[in-house]
Amino acid sequence: MITTRPNGSLYSNIENNIATIEFGHPASNSFPLALLDRLAKTIDKVSNDESVHIVILKSEGEKAFCAGASFDELKAITNLEEGKKFFSGFANVINAMRSCKQPIIGRIQGKAVGGGVGLAAACDYCMATETAAIKLSELTIGIGPFVIEPAVSRKIGLAAFESLAWEASQWKNAYWAKEKGLYSRVFDTITELDKEVQLLAEKIAKYNPQAIRKMKVTTWRNTEHWEELLVERATISGELVLSEFTKEALTKFEK
């Protein structure tokens, strides 16, 4: 079932020490600010639940995993404060994922663009289908992938990030993403993907929860400064989204 709610949908469920968080939006699972805020708060809530040992992050439907920022909300931004607030929504989600006490498995069933790539990169382990191509298209509309850069570069390296960022109109396929380290495994079908995501989650859920939490802290070492860094990056994007170039590009995108 795909949501028709204009602000999107978010569901979470905890079963057998596994928390599943599923988000959705009628515009290719893109994110308005309200949905970003809900996702960050949900991750924080799950993080503080002692019964949870592992988290699965997924999106609705069988097509796009996440189309990034809501174009409607990008167009509606009229001042720097609004711009900074909107892009801070992505900063808050990435920081919530980073500081989440449990590892997060990303279930990437389709294409990921912009902020969607950032979400995948902020997961601790990703599995995807072969249709899960990725693209950082921000420069084509006059902004840049500033907020998500630390997460993406941490996962795939600066050189691969630059390839994505500068080739802003080019898709990189799922096997490229696997080669660079964004995805750990790639499957032919969503059925296979779901089976393997569940199997891995069940295995991790049986490990020593203290070891799991220590492992999470270890792999995210030296990222504590992201609390300030990502907000600084949000300010850059908030400024650029007000430019004439971006306003015109967003208008053309609709046509």
Structural features, described:
This protein is an alpha/beta fold and 255 residues long. The protein has one domain: 2-enoyl-CoA Hydratase, Chain A, domain 1 (Alpha-Beta Complex). 49% of the residues lie in helices and 15% in strands. The strands form 2 sheets. A 6-stranded mixed sheet has the order 1-2-3-4-6-8, with helices on both faces. A two-stranded parallel ribbon has the order 5-7. Helix 1 (33-47) runs parallel beside helix 3 (80-99) and helix 3 packs antiparallel against helix 10 (226-240). The chain is globular and about 55 Å long. It starts with 8 loop residues before the first strand and ends with a helix.
Estimate percent helicity. 40-55%
* CATH architecture assignment: Alpha-Beta Complex
Number of domains: 1
Instruction: Output the number of helix runs.
Output: 11
| Unreliable runs | none
- The SSE string, one letter per element, is EEHEHHEEHEEHHHEHHHH
Classified by CATH, the class is Alpha Beta
Determine the CATH topology.
2-enoyl-CoA Hydratase, Chain A, domain 1
Q: Beta fraction of the residues? A: 5-15%
Output the CATH homologous superfamily.
2-enoyl-CoA Hydratase, Chain A, domain 1
For the sheet with most strands, the description reads:
6 strands, mixed
Q: Which overall shape is indicated by the principal axes computed on the Cα atoms?
A: globular
- Strand elements, count: 8
N- and C-termini, Cα separation: 28 Å
Q: Reading side by side through the largest sheet, how are the strands ordered?
A: 1-2-3-4-6-8
What structural class do helix, strand and pairing data support?
alpha/beta
* Whole-angstrom Rg: 17 Å
Average pLDDT, all residues: 96
